[in-house]
Amino acid sequence: VQLQASGGGLVQAGGSLRLSCAASERTFSNYAVGWFRRVPGKLREFVAAINPSGLGARYADSVKGRTTISRDNAQNTVILQMTSLKTEDTAVYYCAADLPPIRDRSRSMHYRYWGPGTLVTVSS
Fold first, then answer.
1. Within 13 Å, how many C-alpha atoms sit on residue 124's CB side?
2. pLDDT of amino acid 94
3. Cα of 61 vs its chain's centroid, Å
4. d(CA 65, CA 46)
5. CA separation for the pair 114, 3 (Å, rounded)
6. CB 3.0–4.6 Å: which of 10, 28, 32, 35 could bond 76 by disulfide?
7. How far apart are CA 62 and CA 29, in angstroms?
8. Would you place residue 36 in the very low, low, confident or very high pLDDT band (cuts 50, 70, 90)?
């Protein structure tokens, strides 16, 4: 499955951003999806994950309460809505997917399919 993340850009601290992950696969509804981010010089970090059904959302503590992951399987899209953005949210954001069962949705090693990232820059 091919993935394409979009929606990144420059936003002020306290603002909001909506990232999209679009898939080429018609059976995308069968895939679990995770969002990860990477700051240069640091390890890739888990952000959020969602099950194929759209249920069972999971969030990193660093974004919990200000981030929502959702999906529209009819559109083969997963959305990451982030609010109250902080400068430390600045990173390249990646979406990843794989077929269940996924042993640990918060670990990037359990996803086989990745799209190119989209850069999010939060200014102070």
1. 2
2. 98
3. 14
4. 15
5. 6
6. 28
7. 27
8. very high
